[in-house]
User: Fold these one by one.
Assistant:
Number 1:
Amino acid sequence: LEEMQKTLNSQFNRASDLSDSVDGKLGDFMNKHEALEAAIEDEVKKVTAIRDRLAALDDINGDDDTLMKRLDETKALQAELQAHENTIGDLQEKVGDIESQYQTPESAALRRALDNLEKKHQTALQKSEKVEDNLEDALEQQVEEVRVEQQRWLGTAREKVDWCADVSGDKYSVEAKLATIEDILTNQQQGE
């Protein structure tokens, strides 16, 4: 009877140790799961905020300075997205570790949340590239329009100067040529 009691006590102690071990592993899993879940959720919020800021920058109206500010901010947001890429890589590694240690529905849910984050991140990157391209195209178009206008003004000014180069003629002809030269000088800012 004593032998059976010792065996039972030994088995109870072993069961208690196993229970403590399971509790420790479960607590470890829950802590890792909750930390990863919070980190993924935080990244989703950050990437979503960047995507929303990019949407606000997707406007090609305005002067050169306004477009340049939008372009600079877009590039800064792209750099932020690149920094988040590193964080997402770290999260992938941690989720992979937890999946290999604990094959549970909770770890599968973490993988789905991480996949969702990666899709949002990729969408935000694509949006940033599109916004950057649109702003650069708008700036290039404005530069081309200014160049064409400047060439038009310069061509007209050259024609007037060529006409004024011949100083022969009567008093009225010379006065008209002087007025034309004054007009060129007055409107010189248009050509700059």
Number 2:
Amino acid sequence: WRSNLGDPDGWPAANTFVVNSQEPVTGLASSGPFLYVFTRREVFIVVDAGIPGQETAIQLAKGIGCISHHTIQTTGRDVIWQGQGGRVFRARGQHIIEISDHRVRGSIKNDACVPGRMSSVYDAGTQRYLLMFADHDVSRPRSLTDPTRQIVTRVYEYRVDRNAWFPWELSTGGPTGFAMVDAVVVRDSDGVD
């Protein structure tokens, strides 16, 4: 279902389209004239979105999907999201490429254990996509009454303009209450971060 253009309270029955999948939808993203529809193992693109009765869902990929809508970001002409197995993808129009590399894929896979504790953001000014995983140690739940509880957030920074990943970690709480940032900085041969 979608609302009428310019009328967010109007939801007529004609404003529907069908995505032929046996899986539930895990996320949506719009980029340019396209609407992307994600399941855990499929990606669809809806063309002619906004033209009642003309919307058509085309399957772009099977075996590639999105594990959580919290990882989806539109970056101008592209859409970036996390799929299964720690893989991160970028779509432009009807073309999908994997942008994760072997250095971060395994770490992202291990950190993505609780979909509700992940988020992402894209900064158009610096062309950086940040994929963040809040503390996922479910054996010791978060507690405001436990001053020794340390909360760790792992961040995977993807610099779109350089096609490069930079993982880092934020650590707060614990016995000292200090916040620490541990970063892995990779320099190019010209010495630029």
Number 3:
Amino acid sequence: NLSTVVANAATLKSLGVDQVSAGLDALGNSLGLSLTLAQVHSITGIGGANAYLTFNPSDTVLVLAGQGDIATLVAEHGALKAAGVDAIKTASGALTLSKANFDEITGIAGGANGVGFSAGDQITISGSATDINAVLSNANYVGKVSALLITNGLSLSLADFNSARTNYTFASGQTLAVSFGDNDLLSLRNNLA
């Protein structure tokens, strides 16, 4: 069972075991694994002096992480990916990260060792207007980020705002200015008539 593997990873490695597999269901499909960050550390040796076991590449391996784990995820995402972790599942269903941390963990900044977030989690990027504009202008964030939190205000055209809100929500309580041009006002007037 999992607790035995967690407690005995070093011993298993010394006996010639290299990989952990989740096993198969009655139809032959991988059961997958959902582990805490501490369990992943114990099984793989990530963060320690020794490398222990990796996960079977055919298994879907999720690591449960919370807001307090972000610095560890930033530091260890490459090792987690190499050990066979497929995605991060938020313990609470939501995480707020800086753009730099999100980029580093997921590899959006061009790294091949990125680990994504589990589908359905509410991922918010918090950042300056420059950061948020960079997110809005890069299609790689669509579907990976749910919400945006602007730390120093943001000004968008009506067209840019409408485009952004099809893919993201804006966290409440922030300064977001939407500018209207003459054509926007004519369109609004025609829609109201």
Number 4:
Amino acid sequence: YILTQDYECIMSISNTEGRDDFESIGGDHMEGFNDNSVTVVSIVSQNTANVPKIICEKFPNILSLLVINSNLSTLSEVSFSSCVNLAELELDMNHLEIIADVIFLNNQQLHSLSLANNRITEMTAKAFIGVPIRNLDIRGNSIASLSRETYAPLANTLVNLWAINSHIEVIAQGTFVNFINLIMLDLSRNQI
């Protein structure tokens, strides 16, 4: 049998100004492991305004990136651009307000995205273009409306969408038409 196991980097970071010019990440590896061995990076209960691009550059084989409860407020087009193998991204309990165009464009393997319990009010029309997301969790945000333009790129891949308690008041007509794989659409506790 071949037994595979994730090699996790549990990262401490203090980056309240949102700097993105870091040149190194310090730390020690277990014997037989190196930066290329890291498949999971966890940043939990830290303090960073952004996800510095060096994280994905330093650990090119990240499959899962978790930035949870870390005061994250900004995502840029370079935040995840070097995480080409990224399959799972969890950005829960932060201060994100907008998910802009092409943030995830280089993440062609991204199938699970959790943005739960942020302050998101807007997801732009091109936020999910080219990304094969199957599981999307946007619960606990302040998204007043769901537009067809934003979610249409997910029509062939989306299986589960959790939008519980997201202050949704309007769902544009035809938003989820032709979503051939959609099994779970939870819009409970909204003002629809």
